[in-house]
Amino acid sequence: MEQHVVKLTDAENQLADLLQAAGAADAKAALTANGLPTRRIEEYHYTDLRTLLREVPANLAKANDGLPSEQFEDFSRIVLVNGALVHADTIDGVEIKSADVARTVGHDQIINLMDGFAQSQIEIVISKSIETPIHIAQVHDGANSVAASKVNVRTAKGVEAAIIETFEGSNESGLRFADFAMDVAAESNLLHIQLDQNAKYARQFVQNRYDLHEDANLRTLVTHSNFQLGRTDIKADFKGEGAHADFGGLNLLVGQQHGDITLNVNHGVPNTTSTESFKSIVRDRAKAIFQGKIIVAPDAQKTDAQMMCQGLLLSERAEVLVKPELEIFADDVLCAHGATCGELDENHLFYLMSRGISRADAESMLIKAFLAELFDEIENEQVHAKLENRVDAWLAAAE
Amino acid sequence: MTTPILEIKNLHVKVEEEDKQILKGVDLTLPAGEVHAIMGRNGSGKSTLSYVLAGKDGYEVTEGEILFMGKDLLEMEADERAAAGLFLAFQYPIEIPGVATMTFLKAALNAQRKTRGEDELKIPEFMKLVKDASAQLEINQDMLKRPLNVGFSGGEKKRAEILQMALMQPSLCVLDETDSGLDIDALKIVSEGVNHLRDANRSMLVITHYQRLLNYIVPDRVHVFSDGRVVESGDRELALELEKKGYAEFDGTAA
Fold this sequence. Notes:
- The complex is a heterodimer.
- Chain A contains seven helices and 20 strands.
- Chain A has helices at about 10-20, 25-35, 50, 110-115, 345-355, 360-375, 380-399, and strands at about 60, 75-80, 85-90, 95-100, 120-125, 135-140, 145-155, 160-170, 175-185, 190-195, 205-210, 215-225, 230-240, 245-255, 260-265, 275-280, 285-295, 305-315, 320-330, 335-340.
- Chain B has a domain at about 5-95 and about 170-245: Rossmann fold, CATH 3.40.50.300.
- Chain B has helices at about 45-55, 80-85, 100-115, 125-135, 140-145, 155-170, 185-195, 210-215, 235-245, 250; strands at about 5-15, 20-30, 35-40, 60-70, 70, 85-90, 95-100, 145-150, 170-175, 205-210, 220-225, 230-235.
- The interface between A and B is medium-sized, with 23 and 29 residues.
């Protein structure tokens, strides 16, 4: 690792002390040497954390038995409070246990923090198909504190399963990290959805990693809506031929919220396909970022990857920043990316109003229509309803 | 004498933020129960008149007034005009992806009812209304499940407009080139749909290029529109004469 002297900010010094207290000396050394990511680091170009993370909590979150409020009827339930496993339903064919954390230190300081603050990792092994989705409630409970969780999911060949994660927090200005890794076994069919239900001033950093094996199928959806500052880093690696994945994400932001979704999809083997669909709706002075990179390896012929990012600006000073990238090293592939950004179409609004619908209702209809294709693919009614309720609440709050 | 449904008096309109005057003194009175046709060449201001009536943004009324059943129409927002009973059948109905046609119809009908202080329609009531009205226009139910106007053929779009008109039961129907893009069969279906709505309490303003539509929707009066105003009015014979002689005879551009 490159060693040079960085003058640390108060926040960086505070985080270094907290890493020491968490027993993560290597992560502390890396942070002290490099500082938090700034705009000069490509992956953080629009999310300069030295500027955005000027205040950090003074304490590590303690073990706690705070309970989640988000409920799904009949779903199996796993509850993590401040990263520790406090409850797991007995699920036929699923093994759930808490293990010692395996920490690594790399070039990304946020990932180092994520690993450094985690005190355990939750191992979930799904050995047969499950009909009811698993709800993992991640609660961050403790005033003004730092917490981190690590969840590793492995499945057996041919398994079908759905995992819905919710992020909740009772404290106002906490800092949370969540690492999620899923090994999508050959011929399996998995769904992974993350709904954030944090407190208003929460800061959140999430990493989702997926390894896809032969003929696997995966659908994901990330929602960014309830936090002050949030970043989700998605990394997917196609390792088996015939695999397909649909990656989706939403930034639904208002006020001065800052939401960043950064995606890296690596088509490393031939005959794999993916779609990437990311949408942002911003109001006031909110800022939504989507960076998506698709890499097609030299021998990954017949890759088909279609990436689309769309932004809807509802206020003059709101911002949507998108950076789609394709790096293609194979010659027989179908890849495309597109980006659109704009306001609501006045002709659409006029048509709806000319039929008696008020401007506010017409706007709501068009905003929901903009999101429809993202939600339509989510077949579970409860999850679908939660997504729609969240959008309704967001729309109602602005009126 | 009863109040006319629509009175347009010396209406002058220009495009907002431009100097271009489009309507230059339109006078037109439409009594209850009558169907009037407006004929004119491209660019004469016919469509602008329909947009100004419906309340589209982007136009500035510089002079004159519009009374809708005696009330100042220009004071009302587009949605209020619809609830008060004005309906514009668009020349080019707007495609709105992500909004199912049925969802839209229900939202529109209930929004109008709410503005008028009426109760919302119950779902079975609504379904029956749509089913009856669409059968007459030969609209199949699958079309109504699709997003509004998205992927509809030209004929389907126009039939969907007339379906909306039938459901909303307006006092004033403004039909903006409803015949454009229709083949003979579709023209017949649409015209029958319109004729079915003719009523002693309902007036229609039919805007068209061609006299052909007026063989199906027979007007009580015909107005020739040129350079932003009505230059000649007469009975339906005027439309035939216009077809024979061309617009030049009427708007002073004849050699």
